[in-house]
Structures are given as C-alpha cells and as structure tokens.
Design goal:
By secondary structure, the protein is mainly alpha-helical. The chain has two domains: about 210 residues, Cation efflux protein transmembrane domain (Alpha-lytic protease prodomain-like, Up-down Bundle); about 80 residues, Alpha-Beta Plaits, CATH 3.30.70. Helices cover about 65% and strands about 10% of the residues. It is built from eight helices and three strands; from the N terminus they run H-H-H-H-H-H-H-E-E-H-E. A three-stranded mixed β-sheet has the order 1-2-3, covered by helices on one side. Strand 2, helix 8 and strand 3 form a beta-alpha-beta unit. Helix 3 packs parallel to helix 5 and helix 5 packs antiparallel against helix 6. The termini are far apart.
C-alpha cells in the first residue's frame, strides 16, 4: 500500500520525506469501502424484510458508493505515480477522471431510484416496519462521521476525487434522512400513507442528482486545465517579484495535475545582462515560487528582455 510515499526528488526543496497526499486519500477511500459494505448489507436486509423501498433505494446508493470508492482508490494509486517517458507531467489526470466517473455513477443511481420510486408511489404495498427507523438513525450518524473525515482529507490534499467520494457519503446520509422522514410518515399515518416511503425515495433521487452535478463541474474544469483561483497567480507574482533582477512579467499559466500544480511564467530582466545572469535569476525565481507554495511541483521560467516604456 502507498501509506508513506516520499515526494519525488526534483530539487533541494522537495527532498524531505513526507506523507504523499494520495496516501491520505487512499486511506480515506478504504475506510469508506469498509463502511459501505456494512451499511449496504444492513440497509438491504432491513429494507427487504421491513418492506421499505426508500431503505432499499438507500442500500443501492451505498452499493454504488462501494464501487465509486474503489475507483477513487485505484485512481489515487495511479495519480501518485512519478512522471515517466510517456507521461512527463505525471499521472495526475487520473484523479479528476475518477471524480467524473463517480459523479456519473451518482447520476445513474439517481435516475434508477427516481424511476422505481414513481412506480412505488402509484402501486399498493404495505407500510414499512417501524424498526427500519432505528437502522436509519444509525446509518445517518455513521455516514455523517465518515463524510466529515473524508471531506477534511479532500480539502487538505485538494483532491477532486476524494472530495467527490466525501460528498457521495453525504448524499447517502441525505437519502437516509429522506427515507427516515418517509418511513416515519408512513408508520405514523397508517393506512393511506404508504406512498410516503416512495415519495421520500423520489426526493432523495433529486438530492443525489444535484450532488452529482456539483461534483461533475469542478472535475471537468480540472480535466480541461481551467486556471486555478486568481489568488494563486497573485501569490506567484509576489514571490517572483521579491527576487532581485526581476523587472516585470509577461504571462503566467498555471494548471493542476492531480495533487500538484505546474507553472509557466515569463519574467522580464535587464536586456544588457548576460545569459548566465538571466539563467541564475530564473532559478532563483523558480525556488522562490516553490518555497512559497509546496503544492507547485515545477516552474518553467522564460526570460524576456525588459524594454523601458
């Protein structure tokens, strides 16, 4: 397992061993897989014997969570691989691609639950068993706990795949909450309120679809190399401007590759200095930028002559 992977050695700035961001994400994915295996089985059995379609739909969502967490775990292993001849920028794109897959799986689950819930609303069936409410209380608590743990890891590593996996857990908690309300209405209301169980499942499908959309967009932007927030560029400019000999900037391009960022920057220097001096300034700028933000894996500096206005 990749639990203590050292950062690959690119310069003196990255030679200290630390836990690779992918390791944290993979650990969170493993916990999610184990929890979802237990919950999918518990909800499936309780829903089947307790006559609750909302709980069965919830079990389906947990089953989808298992496969999505496996996809995230596999993608993080791939994303953590160092650059090679065929992938000079590394394998980081595997990470947002996994997030896209997870969001599409959520869309599919939402559609399937919505179709079946409509059928349940308009068909006659017995009210759910009261004990299914106890199962759902436990599920909601456990899912909220795992969500908070995984989303914290996702924010620390800035991993779209880990964040998507976290919101998959939150979606499960929300569908469980919706199922709880529907079953409660059906149990308390008695005869004539059986459809509340199906209505709750339909409502949950809408929430799942919404969360799928909010996960899909940032992952797609990352795959399309959309620029990161402006504050990162401003930090790069501030760091470079502190280097003696830098007189200005032309362009700055930043793209995210998995857990790391790559920067292309054009700096302006005195036109009369030697190539060696310009090269030295470029190296100092590179070191300054990477020192200011450890997430930046590499900086390509292009030196341009400064022309006074």
């Amino acid at each position: 397992m990749l639990d203590e992977m050292p950062v690959r050695k690119k310069s003196s700035l990255s030679r200290r061993t630390r836990v690779h961001p992918a390791s944290k994400g993979m650990r969170a994915a493993r916990w999610g897989i184990l929890l979802n295996l237990f919950l999918a089985l518990a909800k499936g059995l309780a829903g089947f014997f307790g006559n609750s379609y909302a709980l069965l739909a919830d079990a389906v969502e947990s089953t989808v969570d298992i496969f999505s967490s496996l996809v995230v775990w596999t993608a993080l292993r791939i994303a953590a691989r160092p650059p090679d001849e065929g992938h000079p920028y590394g394998h980081g794109k595997a990470e947002p691609l996994a997030a896209i897959f997870v969001s599409l799986a959520l869309f599919a689950a939402a559609l399937g639950i919505a179709v079946q819930s409509v059928h349940e609303i308009f068909s006659r069936h017995n009210a759910p068993a009261p004990y299914t409410l106890i199962v759902l209380v436990v599920v909601i608590f456990l899912k909220e706990v795992i969500f908070r743990y995984v989303v914290r890891i996702g924010r620390q590593t800035e991993s779209t795949a880990v964040k998507s996996d976290a919101w998959h857990h939150r979606s499960d908690a929300i569908t469980s909450a919706a199922a709880f309300v529907g079953i409660l209405v059906a149990v308390v209301g008695g005869k004539g309120f059986e459809m509340a169980d199906g209505i709750a499942a339909f409502f949950a499908s809408g929430i799942i679809a919404f969360n799928a959309w909010r996960l899909f967009i940032p992952a797609l932007r990352e795959v399309m190399d959309t620029s990161p927030p402006l504050k990162m560029k401003n930090r790069i400019f501030r760091s470079a401007a502190k280097v003696s000999g830098v007189l200005g900037f032309h362009k700055c391009f930043v793209r995210k590759m998995g857990f790391e960022y790559y920067v292309d920057l054009q700096i302006l220097v005195n036109a009369k200095i030697s190539v060696r001096q310009g090269h030295t300034i470029a190296h100092r700028v590179k070191d300054a930028i990477r020192s200011a933000d450890r997430r930046i894996a590499d900086v390509h500096i292009h030196v341009e002559p400064y022309v006074a206005p």
